[in-house]
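To the team - adenosine-5'-diphosphate complex, inputs and output below.
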Amino acid sequence: MTPIIQFEKVTKRFGDVLAVDAVSLTINEGEFFALLGPSGCGKTTLLRMLAGFEVPSEGRILIDGKDVTLVPPNRRPVNMVFQSYAVFPHLSVLKNIEYGLKMEGVGSAERRARAEEALALVQLNGLGDRMPDAMSGGQRQRVALARALVKRPRVLLLDEPLSALDAKLREELRFELSRLQDKVGITFVMVTHDQDEALALATRCAVMSKGSLMQVASPSDLYEFPATRLVADFIGSVNLFQGRVLADESDHAIINLPEVGKQAWLEHGVGSSDTLDIWLAVRPEKIELHKRSNGEGPPELEGTPAGYNVIEGVIADIAYLGSESVYEVKVALADGGER
Ligand code: ADP
Ligand code: MG
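Output:
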């Protein structure tokens, strides 16, 4: 793996606002990297510093090992696709795509050939003579993609590229972005607040909160091994229990759950050497519901000693979602309350 982008303790302040807080991050060549986090956490600012539209208050940015912190946007081997389709309304699709090459002094024959090639990449063959306002939102975003790709950047930056599209189109274009990246093989860095989008597309993903990186990992590691409560809660849905580690061995751990007056058995250690107070995060699909008949004891769970990992509750609500149903279960709290 060859690093292509390095952020070294990059900080950005706007007056009193700390938009990006000492971010260090390495992105490798050929990755589809996602920056994921809620609105206002600093994603766009980080991307704009990479593109050269903002100058960091502190820290350095390297591309291909070269310090580009103060290099202007047009001299960096990156290109950006914006959230709103930034196309010129008075130019045809082909002229829109050729525009950047013309600015670079590329001859007309080569311009045309490369623009046609870029159009084909985004599956708009034959639509070069259209005007942008005669196209759908999805098509215009493809034009914006072609316009960025035609310059053959080393890195393509995408700021919420699908967020202006409706749900169905968004899903369609999501697959296409993935196919496109496979085909052109260049590094993609995409900003999104949509976790489904990030998990579906990214090879690796950074979760941001309030200007800082919470965790950088593959989508499956973010989901299976969230580093913090915040990441567990932000990625997918999760049931969170306050817990205290009673035993922590390499092959199992026992967690006391004082809120529900029960104990949990984990088939691996938790390695919580610095604190015994933890959050136990349980994904909903890992929970089995067993109906209880009168006088019957708790069910036997495979791989778990009797008495652990069972909580009594009452189904309070069922939301039918087609391919799945979400059960809300009220469990008795140790202090007599309910949740
Ligand atoms: P995101 O893209 O994650 O929604 P941004 O990077 O746009 O977040 O913004 C991060 C923070 O920096 C926000 O509090 C935002 O209001 C602030 N901010 C961004 N750009 C500017 C600017 N040009 N001037 C002042 N504040 C800004
Ligand atoms: Mg943004």
